[in-house]
Amino acid sequence: MQLKPLKGQHHVSALTANAKKNYHFYTKTLGMRLVKKTVNQDDTSVYHLFYADERGNPGTDLTFFEIPNAGHTYPGTNSISLTTLRVPNDESLVFWKKRFEELGVDHDDIDQVNGRKSLFFRDFEDQRLALISDENNSGVAGGKPWAKSPVPVEHGIIGIGPVMLTVAELGATSTIMTEIMGYRKSSKYKMPGSGHEVTVFQTGEGGNGAEVHIIERSDLPSERPGRGSVHHVAFRVESEEELRKWVSLLKEKRIASSGFVERYYFRSLYFRDPNGILFELATDGPGFEGDEDFEHLGESLALPPYFEDQREAIEAKLKPLDTKE
């Protein structure tokens, strides 16, 4: 069966205990656009918020499930341990460092990571994040920041950068990445500060938008996830036809998966790597403008058609979240 290479990161989905504060941080502080306010389709009692570029282009989405009673995250292995966000150039990092200082955002100094300047920081729930410069980057193109963002467009976040995994056993995950998912090992580097070795895997056109960085840490306990942790990472598949080929491939390889899942805004497939990390494959389309026009994305509670007859019951369980301000 001939499959096209995966195109890179599609989105990262994380956990928050407070949708209101989360909305404020990612739109007012980071300047991302809320392109969809909807619900977790597997548990409609909680919000699912999508922050992205101006229209939620694939590869630009950082999403959050609100779990109000989520406890503290105890970082460890077998986890998605860092999400990076792409910015246009090195000068943008100088802008962001100053902005973080002015707004009281917990951050480190600008550093060099795998040949690219980066700025590590944390949100109000200690979500582990970094901004990464696209100045010396080639490969998958970034998105386009929203013109109405509080952050100047020339410094705006343009997409999801390399996603970092921390695993107990590199070999097993490496096999899945290369032999099943079609990634190639491209380089290794030492993590600033800790000195731990990081192995870089790349797919498709490569570059910041198509890399997974993996650290092996057999000395750590498994992460206990909570608010501020990452639930899963999704990778881009061109079309529904291509996704169905992936469903067949995983079945043929006897890798347990969700099978084909309809998410309305895209189509998906879920499976776990041998270290238990949840991976999703997601189609580039249809996108977020099927139920809201471009000018009003994220302003109202959007529900896929198959949940519309439950709207009253769903809204009754949700704490109101004003996203028109």
From TrEMBL:
Record InterPro entries: Extradiol_RC_dioxygenase, Glyas_Bleomycin-R_OHBP_Dase, Glyas_Fos-R_dOase_dom, VOC_core
PROSITE patterns the UniProt entry points to: VOC (PS51819)
Domain VOC: 8-134, 159-284
Pfam family, one: Glyoxalase
PANTHER family the record matches: RING-CLEAVING DIOXYGENASE MHQA-RELATED (PTHR36110:SF4), RING-CLEAVING DIOXYGENASE MHQE-RELATED (PTHR36110)
Name of the protein this chain belongs to: Glyoxalase family protein
Native organism: Mesobacillus foraminis
